[in-house]
Amino acid sequence: MKVYISADIEGxxxxxxxxxxxxxxxxxxxxxxxxxxxxKAACEGAINAGVDEIWIKDAHDSGRNIDHNLLPKNTKLIxxxxxHMYSMVQExxxxxxxxxxxxxxxxxxxxxxxxxxxxxxxxxxxKLNGEYLxxxxxxxxxxxxxxxxxxxxxxxxxxxxxxKNHNRNIVTIPVxxxxxxxxxxxxxxxxxxxxxxxxxxxxxxxxxxxEIELPKEFELEIKYYKHSETLKAMNYKGxxxxxxxxxxxxxxxxxxxxxxxxxxx
Length: 265
Hints:
- The chain is an alpha/beta fold.
- Helix content is 29%, strand content 26%.
- The chain folds into two domains: 2-124 and 132-210, Dipeptide transport protein (Rossmann fold); 218-264, no CATH class.
- The chain is built from six helices and twelve strands.
- Strands 3-2-1-4-7-8-9 form a seven-stranded mixed beta sheet, with helices on both faces. A five-stranded antiparallel beta sheet has the order 6-5-10-12-11.
- β7 (150-156), α3 (157-166) and β8 form a beta-alpha-beta unit.
- α1 (28-48) packs parallel to α4 (188-203).
- The radius of gyration is 18 Å and the shape is globular.
């Protein structure tokens, strides 16, 4: 069995402030280590379930946070950014049996993680078909289009609740809860145990129960902080202005949504 793990940091237990997520800051090292350990726990759970090949995307910021030396030998780690449209699931294709998310966080526009955002912190929010779009949902739709089931997610409670709205069978482990600019976190060691066991459980189930429905039509809305960004976005074919800070883009093709997001942020 071959699985793909996409890992972020804002949904890792303990992470509360931007200084803890940025490589040049002194606080980063501690939480990048916890991110690595949570990915390691996911790998161990996957191996226990019979997985023999694991690809991991370091999908936070520079893409250079995870210590590969601490991971099992049957892992391949994707570091940095190629510019590929699939972004946080770069190299994902039909050959993978399952997709796992580690350290994921709530969408921009929501209040369930002090670090909530979607793809880019320089915008207010992205909505898809009227709902705040999370990085989980965007990349789950990509996986769905490739017929790769999403089986597991760890992150903040708000995002875990969102996941259950799309498919209650996806195994979720909430390791933290946001409250204003604070977080309520479970113990780091407990997080590792729960992630390991949860991943193993998820990979031993019938994968047909993990289906996420792909919309037939897509209406993308992006709200910028600056009017100048709205005017810039108007250069993209098909974009319409809603007001001074919001634009919309409509299509029936998921890949066109993914492409638009890549160029409009």
